[in-house]
Fold each of these.
Amino acid sequence: MSGIVVLSGDPRPDSHTARLANGIGSGAAQLIGARPPEVFDLADYGHRLLVPDDTDVIRAVAAVRDADLLVIATPEYNGTFTGVLKVFLDRFPSGGLAGRPTLSVVTSSTPGRAEVAESHLHALLADLGATTPGPGLAVAEDQLTRPDVLISGYLDRVRSALGVPSH
């Protein structure tokens, strides 16, 4: 296993979504006493996501497959997750993430749109066999002014699923 892996499916590099996911991954690492997460920002891969033998993409797939904990984040696009995230996750067969604990994060312009997109991502992760400890984090963009509050609140909600006793 390779520890915690953060996967940002935002097509824009260093986005709010990516930074929120990185914060959750880092917070989860501190919570469970793991090393800092390995981060893959899919915006950095561009068209290479479509190249079957791209070594960087193959390395990212292997890290996701072997992770002890995944944090998968995406902004909402047209009512669901981004195409760049779907292209990457299409490299896994149905059940390809079997038993992999996964925290999902979705950002959007409104809370309702974020929740709908998160339910679509949750369904995709379930088809891939990932285990999702409760609902993911669905966030409206106007809530991103205090990411530290979002991160700590979310980690408090999932701490028992991560095997960390309540404080």
Amino acid sequence: MKIKLKNRLDVLMRDSGVRSVEEMAHRLTDNQKYKITRTPLSRKFKDEDVTLSLSMIEAICNELQCLPGDLFETEVSDATDEYIDELRSRLQPFRYGSIRLKKPGAPDSTDVPTTGPAPAPRAVPAKGKKPAAAANDLDDIAGPKVTHMNAAALKKQ
């Protein structure tokens, strides 16, 4: 099996209302106390072979309110059908990412995108009413809430 990662920072930035790499660099510096300028940030996500530190991934995830898996698209190739089925059963749905499974020898255009198992349907409360257990149900489905605190403040907790 071979795995290739592609970054999806541009999609996350667009969905979060960040209009440019320069704005993202300012937000990381000001809000997350992760000092970076536009040029190095741009290089990190434009170049194919870069090293991303965990502190940078934490800062981006805290600023954009996403999970680390949302930053990357995962492409799997050279895997058996049985292993692909096992992978699909282990995958958790996530916000933006998608996994592209490639059959051995297949061209890139025949990738089969998947986002893992479908999430359980949620009951929609009547207008103006919030059920008491709804918050707990959402935590069970989506996992723990992501805070908008900077990485240094989170490490103190």
Amino acid sequence: MPGDRSAPQVQSWRVGPVRVLRLVGELDAVTVPDVAVKLDEALLTFEDLLLVVDLTQVTFIASVGVGVLVRMRQNVQRRQGRLIVVLPAQGRARRLFELMRMVDHFEVRLTLPEAVRALRQRRPRPLLPEEMRMAPEPTPPPTSIPGGPADR
């Protein structure tokens, strides 16, 4: 029964300039509101938004859980931060992210050390597919046409 299971945990720690949030347990319609509050509180306390959300200990995730992560990603981007999600190669979280095509909307790494290393290098994050669509097309430099005004 839903009342018998324990609430999911949000563990938080720093690795240098990177803040790690590990979600543990089940993220469904019943448990996500509490997790969302904890994630929002965590965001309020972070100065430098280099953030890893580790989902390797999530035993179940519903689409509402992914929705909370989408909102978190948007908040981090608005504050000029960078967020990476750790999704193991196998598991329910990975399957849901793939089914919802969310792997195209998040920076994803397979392990926590990979994610931390990527953020510590402070390289600009790669553009997400939706950002690529919004970026203006580069304008090619003008070329002279043989016999045109430049040749006279």
Amino acid sequence: MTARRICLVLGTALLAGLSFGAVAQNGAAHDSGDRMTPSMQSDGSRDAMFMRKAAAANTAEIQAGRIALDKSGNAEVKQLAQRIIDDHTKAGDQLVSIAQRKQVSLPTEPMPTQKQEADHLKSLSGTAFDQAYAQAMVKDHRDAIELFGMESANGSDPDLKQFASTTLPALKMHLQMAEQLPGGGMHRNDAMDHTDTTPMDDNGSMRMPASGSSTR
């Protein structure tokens, strides 16, 4: 075989190898991209963070509601607590369904500061408990309105934007109910305040639309 023919054969083999490598690389990138929807790929970190904050706070709200049902003798406090438990249970199911489609894992426990808040509530009783619970719900719901409002306005995933926007009315209704409880209209108790400089890091309470309330 002549030197020229050898060069031609080697050149053809090199080009074929490069083409195969490019095809394999493109295929791997495509397979990786299929793991999330296009919208989650474009801004997955922000939307995923919203889901995780909301899930943790949703669990915290349900736990606080159960504490209120157990410890409070105030009918209005119990009414709000049951409303929150019912609405947040359904909202949590919705969020889990969305997260499964986006392949985002959600926390199943509240954040540390939320656990501290629950422990504080457990240590109280009577009027002191009712006032502390009302103040906690006012604070959490104000933070949640900001969290869900930002997702509704600025989120990149259509499913999450719709979830946030349809949840906001019930969130505002919960806030209104909490403000009407004894102590709910007062300034927040320093003992219930979080020390974080970014309040949304440990909040983002999950809410259901008004149409999904108190059916349990």
